[in-house]
Amino acid sequence: MRSKSRGFLFCTAMKSVQVLFLVLFLTNTSLRLLRGDAPLILDYYKETCPHAEDIVRRIVEIAVLKDPRMAASLLRLHFHDCFVMGCDGSVLLDNYGGMLSEKQAGPNLNSLRGFEVIDEIKYVLEDACPATVSCADILALAARDAVVLRGGPGWGVDLGRRDSLTASFNGANQFIPAPNSTLDTLIANFQQQGLDIGDLVALSGSHTLGKARCLSFRQRIYDNNVEEKFGYHERDEHYIKSLRSLCPQSGGNNVLAPLDLVTPARFDNHYFINLIEGRGLLISDNVLFDQDLHWEIRKHVFAYAANQDYFFESFVNSMIKMGNINVLTGVNGEIRRNCRYANSYTNGKK
């Protein structure tokens, strides 16, 4: 009898401990949600909007089919969002009230594209699942789908971001790397976001897609002091001549040249081969190889140029890492009904 009593007491005690741990877990989870530091998770919308990812994928697919360059534009939108205040959809906000949009900042003005695609995705999602899917999550999903559609790797996108209530015009001017950045400046820009030099090189590989304006690479092809200022000399004069035929010394700011002259519409590792051959379009591309005297970055460039699968793996890891920069979760921020305006503004308009 004593043995049975002891067994009963032991089982009762164990169940009490299990219940206690469950209560503590649920309490801790609730507190994290209230504080807004809950982690992003896969399948976040599985119950609340089960077709969310399918809707995003389909609209991105149609947009890229109509305009192949849109893949690079959607990927770039996600970058420019995350580098200013975090991945919170702030880059999508228009001017309203006394707030100046990030779209008006130097790195974005007449340069960022794809806003109408995001608007369309949001419109369809609001019809399917009102006030459920954030604009910040749409950006993250659209970037992934854009990469896949151009032959790049796929990955599971952690979701649960909420949208900011405001934008930062000054932050966009300060934190988004310029096309004529030195290597030290690039490293500092990325470190401010919690990203290391491995992330810098891998994420720079996104320049395997898309085009840049003459305004962005004019200094690289006409400034006679580039070697002195940026520590590298031109190694492909034929490439320079071809760029000068496209981009005049003055005017023609919006003339476009491919960031990857070999496979400009395909997500692959040829960008890194271009760097080794001196055919990076932007100064900020070339310094990754030519300014790195200690081979800390060159070793990544050579590795990615030699092994596309390794580049894809590193790119995915860095994209996931970048997608977690200063995200808003829990009760922080909001789920915008219109990605261009905070809900308080749209309420007032109505």
TrEMBL record:
<comment type="function">
    <text>Removal of H(2)O(2), oxidation of toxic reductants, biosynthesis and degradation of lignin, suberization, auxin catabolism, response to environmental stresses such as wounding, pathogen attack and oxidative stress.</text>
</comment>
<feature type="disulfide bond">
    <location>
        <begin position="214"/>
        <end position="247"/>
    </location>
</feature>
<dbReference type="InterPro" id="IPR002016">
    <property type="entry name" value="Haem_peroxidase"/>
</dbReference>
<dbReference type="GO" id="GO:0005576">
    <property type="term" value="C:extracellular region"/>
</dbReference>
<dbReference type="GO" id="GO:0042744">
    <property type="term" value="P:hydrogen peroxide catabolic process"/>
</dbReference>
<keyword id="KW-0964">Secreted</keyword>
<feature type="binding site">
    <location>
        <position position="263"/>
    </location>
    <ligand>
        <name>Ca(2+) 2</name>
    </ligand>
</feature>
<feature type="binding site">
    <location>
        <position position="88"/>
    </location>
    <ligand>
        <name>Ca(2+) 1</name>
    </ligand>
</feature>
<dbReference type="InterPro" id="IPR010255">
    <property type="entry name" value="Haem_peroxidase_sf"/>
</dbReference>
<feature type="binding site">
    <location>
        <position position="81"/>
    </location>
    <ligand>
        <name>Ca(2+) 1</name>
    </ligand>
</feature>
<feature type="binding site">
    <location>
        <position position="90"/>
    </location>
    <ligand>
        <name>Ca(2+) 1</name>
    </ligand>
</feature>
<feature type="binding site">
    <location>
        <position position="268"/>
    </location>
    <ligand>
        <name>Ca(2+) 2</name>
    </ligand>
</feature>
<keyword id="KW-0325">Glycoprotein</keyword>
<dbReference type="InterPro" id="IPR019794">
    <property type="entry name" value="Peroxidases_AS"/>
</dbReference>
<keyword id="KW-0349">Heme</keyword>
<feature type="disulfide bond">
    <location>
        <begin position="49"/>
        <end position="129"/>
    </location>
</feature>
<keyword id="KW-0106">Calcium</keyword>
<keyword id="KW-1015">Disulfide bond</keyword>
<feature type="disulfide bond">
    <location>
        <begin position="135"/>
        <end position="339"/>
    </location>
</feature>
<dbReference type="InterPro" id="IPR033905">
    <property type="entry name" value="Secretory_peroxidase"/>
</dbReference>
<feature type="binding site">
    <location>
        <position position="102"/>
    </location>
    <ligand>
        <name>Ca(2+) 1</name>
    </ligand>
</feature>
<dbReference type="GO" id="GO:0006979">
    <property type="term" value="P:response to oxidative stress"/>
</dbReference>
<keyword id="KW-0575">Peroxidase</keyword>
<feature type="active site" description="Proton acceptor">
    <location>
        <position position="80"/>
    </location>
</feature>
<comment type="similarity">
    <text>Belongs to the peroxidase family. Classical plant (class III) peroxidase subfamily.</text>
</comment>
<keyword id="KW-0408">Iron</keyword>
<keyword id="KW-0479">Metal-binding</keyword>
<keyword id="KW-0376">Hydrogen peroxide</keyword>
<comment type="similarity">
    <text>Belongs to the peroxidase family. Ascorbate peroxidase subfamily.</text>
</comment>
<dbReference type="Pfam" id="PF00141">
    <property type="entry name" value="peroxidase"/>
</dbReference>
<feature type="binding site">
    <location>
        <position position="86"/>
    </location>
    <ligand>
        <name>Ca(2+) 1</name>
    </ligand>
</feature>
<dbReference type="InterPro" id="IPR019793">
    <property type="entry name" value="Peroxidases_heam-ligand_BS"/>
</dbReference>
<feature type="binding site">
    <location>
        <position position="260"/>
    </location>
    <ligand>
        <name>Ca(2+) 2</name>
    </ligand>
</feature>
<feature type="binding site">
    <location>
        <position position="177"/>
    </location>
    <ligand>
        <name>substrate</name>
    </ligand>
</feature>
<dbReference type="GO" id="GO:0140825">
    <property type="term" value="F:lactoperoxidase activity"/>
</dbReference>
<feature type="binding site" description="axial binding residue">
    <location>
        <position position="207"/>
    </location>
    <ligand>
        <name>heme b</name>
    </ligand>
</feature>
<protein>
    <recommendedName>
        <fullName>Peroxidase</fullName>
        <ecNumber>1.11.1.7</ecNumber>
    </recommendedName>
</protein>
<feature type="binding site">
    <location>
        <position position="84"/>
    </location>
    <ligand>
        <name>Ca(2+) 1</name>
    </ligand>
</feature>
<feature type="binding site">
    <location>
        <position position="208"/>
    </location>
    <ligand>
        <name>Ca(2+) 2</name>
    </ligand>
</feature>
<dbReference type="GO" id="GO:0046872">
    <property type="term" value="F:metal ion binding"/>
</dbReference>
<feature type="disulfide bond">
    <location>
        <begin position="82"/>
        <end position="87"/>
    </location>
</feature>
<dbReference type="GO" id="GO:0020037">
    <property type="term" value="F:heme binding"/>
</dbReference>
